[in-house]
Amino acid sequence: MFKKILFIAAHTDDECCCAGTLSRFLEDGCDVHLSAFSYCEQDSKELGFPTNILRSEFECSADVIGIENSNLHISNYPVRNFPEHRQKILDDMVLIRKKINPDLVLIPSSIDTHQDHKVIYEEGIRAFQYCTVLGYETPKNLLSKKHSCYIKLKQKHFEVKTKCRSCYKSQQKRIGMSNQTKLTLSKFRGEQIGCEYAEVYEVLCLQI
Question: Which domains does the chain have, with CATH numbers?
Fold first, then answer.
């Protein structure tokens, strides 16, 4: 159904939430692009890592999924300050839309509480109003559930998700990065629809 897929991340490492789905789309022959709007230099510095480590880890993660460097679109807005750069972020999204012309776009869920994710959701809806848009879940940022689109995964797709997580050495101590947590969630989502693994999305705009 979909030929060109665009995943939009507020921060590098967000793509791990959808790595199984992205892997499956690639397997189905789709042209998959990743766009990240910050590699969080300030956070990396405070944690004692090189300021660009999340950019290199993002490239590692994309390689694990199977996405070429030419399909990566990386900006570096200051983390937790996206509201101050809302218009420029929208302008960047419009440029990406014109360059790629995606027919499916993955953005944060409408109920994501992180201030940067909220800006990406709001400007994403504006920039891609004529595309099918799904909102992905970042469990630690959600206070309720509005997800109703389930994408079935096989074990090999979940293994890609796990390998993407392992690329982010700088993030391993953060809450929510545990592979066991992701395994439990993916299995739970799978059980909800009668398969082994799944990732779930909020349907924001469906065009068929």
Answer: 4-205 (3.40.50.10320)
